[in-house]
What does this fold into?
Amino acid sequence: MRSTPTTLPALARRPLPWAAAVLLAGAALVAPRAQAGVAGTGLIRQMAEPADPVFAVAAGSAETTDRLIVQYRSNAPGNRRSALRATPQAHQRLQLAGLQALSVHRNGLGAQVLQLNRPARVTELEAVARQLMADDPNVLYAEPDRKLQALATATDPLYTSQWHYFETVGGLNLPSAWDQSTGDGVVVAVIDTGVRPHAELAANLLSGYDFVTSTSASNDGDGRDSDAIDPGDGCNGGHSSWHGTHVAGTIAAVTNNGEGGAGVAYAAKILPVRVLGCGGGYFSDIADGMIWASGSAVGGVAAPSQPAKVLNLSLGGRSGCSTTLQSAINTARSNGAVVVVAAGNSNQDASLHTPANCAGVVTVAATGRTGARASYSNYGAKIDVAAPGGDQRSGNANGVLSTLNDGASSPGNDSYAYYQGTSMAAPHVAGVAALMLSRNPALTPDEIEVLLKSTVRRMPVSCSLGCGKGLVDANAAVGAVFVGASSASLASETEPNDTHAAAQALSSFPVKISGTLATGTDMDTYLVSVGVGQTLTARLIGNASSNYDLLLRNAAGTTVRSSIRGVGMSDSVTWTNGGGSTVNMYLRVKRVAGLTGSAGTYTLEVNR
It folds into this structure.
């Protein structure tokens, strides 16, 4: 039976002395708006619509960084040095630019991160990196260690105010999903500014890690340590966003406890990973946080005892996908974690923003209460799905309500606030992924992405610029988890099986087959004997980058059922034997477009 959030007292309106949307990366503060409090539950901050704090713009930008990442090839001198230090080639190239490496540390990918003596323009360091690669054949890649920023702010109060969960038009269709799953047993990493031990979060918080290496940006007096509590990210006494706390509340705020609001996967656990401090966070720190959260040791930091199966990255900036970030995403996926990222808040094509434009991530656009794309949300072909992120142009209560802190710069009291942004949309999707994994822990990152995209609702308001497959439907996504998967027999595809004569026979049901399309013309075929009155059901879950079709053929080679849904979508067929005798039927997996070989993976689920 579904549990529903406890009804709390109505909001008590009262004026408060200040409120402002925090715009990181040096942006100006927005003029204050009216505030509202919740009697006995702490402050609710009403936030103005934030601009997207980008860290890189067009050529000639003043964006700077004081770090350079250098990855050497295996067994190259830069990797074999007993003491970490920059190579002579690196020193020489830096000196020509008026720079020097003061210290070096190695990140979780094995690359050297050079701390420079002063900030330099990113464009300048990109030129240094190119010359370094040209000078030294042992360098696999080099790139500036740029910074990403928290994308937006938002808030989380009473369940009845959390329209983004339950309203028919623009909501997540979440209450029905709770009949099936509440996220129990799943860990979600919040890779962000850290998380406050809010009363609505404390019971679901694991011990995380602070990967911010810069003591000047950390705001806690030191570099990396095992304390992932957010000390505030306000620069020089400026307003702190408490961004990670808001994101965490959307994912897994404690529910049915008589206070505050609800979380999407309220029985899941949150692994706080601090990578953003004053002014944002470096690529190298963010990458290390992702690698660690997904279950790998990083440097001297042992892997977490409870690694995350879902990583939420509500951060980003304008840039191509960094090699460092892409490598970290690849590592996280190989560890079995699905990576959910915010599309960005610049009302631009998401292909211009990272990590939204990286491969292997679920990129989320934001919608408002009407189901239309939010005015700030990025768009385009890189978007996978859309989810509620709020649009406060028509009122603060049309934002996303979640946990926060009322401290201006340093920590204060627990509070709740309405925020808006793709930063608020992404944790809705991360929470749904946790609900899915709780029901079937064996789901792979590709299977989660494909099922999310295959179960969306049509956008209530057309999104001509591109909002992915549609609006995430929590109930449909959780319901799409194959009912027999947890108890299904497992099988692997065996070649050759391109023809009816060579078809791979399936016997025990339900069965889940792991297959690969080796070439563009490969057509894997499976034989199923269907008795009188039996119903054959099959579902194909391809990898998220490919378009594979599913056909059901009879012994004469005639296609009697087919499913041809497109790239990144699941396909399914159903057929009942209404005849008087058992018949052999043939399921065929066919490539239309996309990956082949070791990357051309798919899952075929069959029952009868």
